[in-house]
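Name: F-box protein
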Amino acid sequence: MLRIGSSSGSIPPETNNNSSEQQQRHRRASSSLGRKKSNLSLRAESRRSPTRTQAPSWSCAGGSMKGIFKSKPKTPAELVRQMRDLLIFFDLRGSASAASSSSLVRSASSSSFLKESKREEKMAELSKIIRELKDILYGKAEQEPVVEACIQLTQEVFKENTLRLLIVSLPKLNLEARKDAAQVVANLQRQQVHSRIIASDYLEENKDLLDLLVSGYENMDISLHYGFMLRECIRHQSIAKYVLESEHMRKFFDYIQLPNFDISSDASSTFKELLTRHKSTVAEFLSKNYDWFFAEFNEKLLKSENYLTKRQSIKLLGDMLLDRSNSAIMMRYVCSKDNMQSVMHLLRASSKNIQIEAFHVFKLFAANQNKPPEIVTILLQNKSKLLRLFSDFKLDKEDEQFEADKAQVVKEIASL
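Structure predicted for F-box protein:
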């Protein structure tokens, strides 16, 4: 028989299962929605984060901090002191190397490399400082030198023998630093401090530096730098007098004939500067040293096999003799038979330039109204040859003064 269930509130088993499944679906949907919201939130955050905060760059090497913490420029005095310290470093290093040169012990290769690397670094630093000092003294680009900066620099250089250290250390510098250092030393000879050129006073007390500069002509590597500095130093009359009266003066007759063209030309320039710049000092020197000086001059310079030496020397001789301050020396020179024969020999030179320079000296012999008998005898013996020479003696360009001088010489010789 068929039985009908009771009317109680219990849910049939199938109905309970459906309800449970709906709850699970609801929970899964809520969880999925929560994850999507979270992902969307993270994506939005990641898009916003670059515009909010970035880690600052603190790299000094890249230059970002350089603009913030820029070092204060050094004063001229500070640059000089730094240069002095570096020069002492190289001076001591050179002394230490010389002292240990006989030792058989050698450093490891890595240690040697580090030392050489340090040396190059120091040399680069020193070169940079010397260049800065040169720029202060000469000005840079279109900027004129600042007077106060030049005074500070000059005062500091002449403290604690810095100038001496710079001159002595010059052979240890690289080529560019040598050039800059030579220009610094040269410029300092003109700098005034309280209306005084203190370089002159310093060299007066350190004359051995002049000995060093003159002997520089014996070292090919530094000869031109030392010669340049020497010419600037002899701007001071007392310093020129010291060099003229020293034994170094005799050396110039050999330096001028050195085979190296640049060195011999530089020595000639210094020689000429010594004999023409300070008139009264030169006149005194020639008067005291007449015999040996002109004997060397005639024998080594006027008779030189080198064309340039011969030409420069005969021109220098004319400049000296025609200078009014040397009038007494000129009268003594033109009364010498040997001197005239040396000059007449150059009148027959194959070079027209040498002939012309020789003529300017020879005219002094001819114009002398108190010719010694031996001079007159030589002129008479060569009278026809001289007149024939001067008849064809002309300059490439017309020169009224030259023609007047030549006419006077011809007249003097013809009247003998």
